[in-house]
Amino acid sequence: MKHNEATYIITVQARAETLSVGLLEQGRLIEYEVFPRHSLPVIDRVCIGKVKEVSLTLHAAFLDCGAGKSGFLPLRGGRKLACGEELLVQIVKEGTQDKGYLLTEKISLSGKYLVLTPFDRRVSLSSKIQNPEERARLHRLASCLPNLKQTGYILRTDAQGQSDADIQREAEELVKQWETIRRRAPYATSGSILYQPMPPVLTYIKNLPTGSIQKIVVDDTAYYRQLKDALQSTYPALTGIVCHHDQGRFGIQEFYKLTSQLQRALAKRVPLRKGGFLVIEQTEAMAVIDVNSGSPAGRMDFEELAYSTNCAAAEEIARQMRLHNLSGIIVVDFIDMRREEHKTALLDLLRKATHSDPRRTTIHGMTNLGLVEISRQKKSLPLQVSIQLEAGGQSYEEFLEDHEENYD
User: Fold this and answer.
1) Measured between alpha carbons, how far is 225 from 207 in angstroms, rounded to an integer?
2) Burial class (CB in 10 A: 0-12, 13-18, 19+), 344
3) Which residue, 257, 261, 369, 398, could crosslink 394 as a Cys pair with Cβ 3.0–4.6 Å?
4) How far apart are CA 381 and CA 405, in angstroms?
């Protein structure tokens, strides 16, 4: 996809407890996530935490952050804390039942184009910005961003192609947010929230490339108005593409064929466009994807058949990782190939296919046994768990407590 080319449709289905968000590219479902409808997001929240316990064995402290469960703060470099001490921290990850939320003292504030890093004065660019001229332009722009002597910045992928004025404006807004936090922190009490991230659907929209969204379709009148008002104050340019779904007897699920696409995604076998199929298995330790050729095609040489099938599989695997929201360790068993140039070309194709993935995805290479190792950033529920949440009667918070292993 070319940058700034509008190819995505976002569908939002509002239910009593949840919002189900689908991302379609040319009619194909490539992401599907479920978010809480009413509760405020906890991840990225900045607050005052009070030390309840210090563990010398774990080199960590447990803090009360007023977020419903304790927070776990790793202590590095001989850092010492005392019980009762209050700290400015940020919640960065859902934790396990034993450790609670993962905390950090290195606060960061994310915008659409920039990440402000008050405790790291370096300025860096996303590695996905590869055009040399654009990198040079953004480096020049970065040298003029506000407050550089006191803070640092990361220019996100979405900064490419944006005007200097828009990036400068967002930097000024992030600096204001940080200054507000910094001024309030010395007077705030334990559990006080000093920065509250945007509702998850807005964050989801923010993280898509600028200009890539054709329209955002909402099936609930009340939430349609709420979302439009929220966008007006955050991303006013997007308000014109938000529309209320009104297709008579066809709901969003039927009109955009979401039900059938989700059913196919949850099936054990995923067919490939050039023949063959994938088998996707998720275990507690990792996800495993097996590539199969199916029936041999005519008189094609087996090496050529294996390479052709593997290339089709690489493109489909990139889509399935996003759709299934596979994360952590992923191992792919491609069809064995003898030629080194085919192995190299396959890894290059897989890296190219995963380049547009918003989650940090790393192709680690091929083992001696021909297995390809991949790691993918974990940020939300796997597809199978999201579907359970959608169908269940629990609140979002109760459901997460029962499925905490999905955030380990």
Assistant:
1) 21
2) exposed
3) 398
4) 10
pLDDT per 10-residue tile (average), the chain, 408 residues: 66 88 91 83 90 91 85 88 94 72 93 92 89 93 90 91 90 94 94 89 80 89 89 84 83 90 87 87 88 70 88 93 91 93 94 88 90 87 78 58 51
Question: Residue 346 and residue 334: Cα distance in Å, rounded?
Answer: 10
Neighbours of 86 (CB within 10 A): 18
273 by DSSP, 3-state: which? coil
Closest-CA residue to 208 (of 142, 156, 152, 135): 156
Quick check: pTM over 0.85?
no
**Total Cβ atoms within 10 A of residue 298:** 6
* Nearest residue to 35 via CA among 223, 200, 206, 218: 200
User: Residue for token digits 């890539």?
Assistant: 212
What's the CA gap between 184 and 205, in Å, rounded? 29
Q: Tokens 């190819």 map to which residue?
A: 7
Quote the pLDDT of residue 154: 94
Residue written as token pair 């996800």: 287
